């Protein structure tokens, strides 16, 4: 996804737990970006078919009774699920990077053939950090605007057996494959910065916040250009 800020995430020393979770891996590698006018993302509104039970279980597990204003949940085809959340607070908001200890959706065999189980009674590994409220609010507003721009209202989410992302931003739900071009790629860059910031020292987080502000400036610029009427 990222060709600059997230490269450091892929080089980060491996530790037990979240630093090796699938979300970080997803955010660390990306193909070359396409031109903005040739960018097509495999995202749609709402839940993909046959995904809601699994996705809802994961979102609730990672939120742990919190009410995030923004969540990005990763449902891999295999392995444990994980996600990023921005949770409002009285002052700073809370940035949380969370991962299930084991895969939530698991097939349980039986004499009758077996059934899918949702293992929601398990520990979740969290990394949390404070994020300035104005920055968090700007991120929510920019992501909602970006998703509303790149995913038309009449495009529903489609079924896939590949790794999926679930965005929920200020009530707007968008799901599908990882975007790798245009505004969607910038959002993935920003998700990588948030992933890094969730377990860094305060001084390093300040640098991440500056990088995030610059990336949001670029995202807002692209969205403004996309919505501007054609010249002439």
Summarize, please.
It contains 6 helices and 9 strands, in the order ααβαββββββαββαα. By secondary structure, it is α+β, with helices and mostly antiparallel strands.
Q: What is the helix fraction of residues, given as a range?
A: 25-40%
Order of helices and strands: HHEHEEEEEEHEEHH
The N- to C-terminal Cα distance equals 35 Å
Largest sheet: 7 strands, antiparallel
Count up the helices.
6
Strand count: 9
Reading side by side through the largest sheet, how are the strands ordered?
A: 1-9-8-2-3-4-7
Strand content: 15-25%
What structural class do you assign from the helix and strand content? alpha+beta
What is the general shape? Answer: globular
- The residue-averaged pLDDT reads 85
- Cα gyration radius (Å): 18 Å
* Unreliable stretches: 1-21, 29-35
Signal peptide: 1-35
Keywords: Signal
Describe this structure in words.
Residues 1-35 form the signal peptide. Keywords: Signal. The chain is an alpha+beta fold and 232 residues long. It contains six helices and nine strands. The protein has helices at 7-11, 22-26, 52-63, 133-150, 182-197, 202-227; strands spanning 43-45, 70-75, 82-87, 93-100, 105-108, 115-118, 124-131, 164-169, 172-176. Strand 8 and strand 9 form a beta hairpin. It starts with 6 loop residues before the first helix and ends in a 5-residue tail after the last helix. Mean pLDDT is 85; it is low at 1-21 and 29-35.
